Amino acid sequence: MTVESPVIVGGLGHSGTRIFAQILECNGVFVGWPRLTRKRGSYDLLLKRKLNKWVEPYLYGKLTKQELGAMREEFRVRLRILFPLRSRRWGFKNPRTLLILPEMHKIFPDMKFIHVVRDGRDMSLGNEFVSGNTYVNAFLSDDEQALTESEKMILFWGRANRKGKTYCEKHMLGQSLMVRFEELCEDPERVVPEIVDFLGLSRDRIEASISLVKRPGSIGRWRNYQGQIRGRVQKLGNEYLQEFGYALV
Questions:
Q1: CB count, 10 Å around CB of 97?
Q2: pTM, two decimal places
Q3: Given strand 7-10, what is the order of strands in its sheet?
């Protein structure tokens, strides 16, 4: 019996990862049992306690080699419990997997990863994830600690996504796919087949998958903010916005 490796969907909080899990499920990928493994309304796999325990010290470089091994083992065991039958395609989405991607890759060397990126201006302006995010400062220098939350967020967005992108380019060629959320919403007829083909799935559910995609009104919300605030965020995030293909307008 062939044992399948997972498909994991990650990004940053509120980057639009839910629709990707729905597309996986529509195409026959088992993404967990509703009510038992998935957070209501988000499709997030219920790994909150493990993620709360390990992600912050991991990002701040506080874990020893032994503790890193313990972290991987805890995730391995939990996922074995949540997904005991692996003879069929399976996977899950939880945005924070992007932040610990190297460790997830050590657990599942043959995994496929979908890296979801959303416009950093929308992620920084009007995003509830901005407030109280304990991971942000791990990506900032000492002299950046005094910036506003929105300014910190655009730097976190750029650097965290760049770190994930760089890892995928170096270690997961052919195993990772980066998708901009806006492109999926604006052109699902092109992007959905790319996702399906990347995973080696049958195309017989393409039309049904496309019908799931809806363009949320929150796309472009950054334009509603005062020019001064918007300008500071855009200036700080300039190099990252360009790197991920977002036009500076």
A1: 25
A2: 0.95
A3: 91-93, 7-10, 112-117, 176-180
- Dihedral Cα 128, 91, 40, 160, nearest 10 deg: -10
Q: Could you give the CA distance from residue 198 to residue 145 in angstroms, rounded to a whole number?
A: 39
What's the CA angle centered on 140, arms 166 and 126, to 5 degrees? 90
Q: What confidence tens digit (pLDDT) does each residue in 207-225 have?
A: 999 999 999 999 999 999 9
Q: Give the amino acid at 135.
A: Y
Other Cβ atoms less than 10 A from the Cβ of 58: the count is 20
Helix or strand run (H / E) with residue 78: helix 65-82
Among 99-113, 119-133, 169-183, the least confident range: 119-133
Q: With H, G, I as helix, E, B as strand and everything else as coil, classify residue 161.
A: helix
Backbone angles phi, psi at 147, to 5 degrees: -70, 160
For the chain, the structural domain boundaries read: 7-243
Each residue of 226-239: pLDDT tens digit? 889 999 999 999 99
Cα 213 to Cα 185: distance, rounded to the nearest angstrom: 6
**Both structure tokens of 167:** 């890892």
Contact 123, 15 (CB under 8 A): yes
Alpha-carbon distance 78 to 183, whole Å? 33
Q: Are 239 and 120 in contact (CB under 8 A)?
A: no
CATH number of this structure's domain 7-243, picked from the four choices 3.40.50.2300, 3.40.50.300, 3.40.390.30, 3.40.50.720: 3.40.50.300
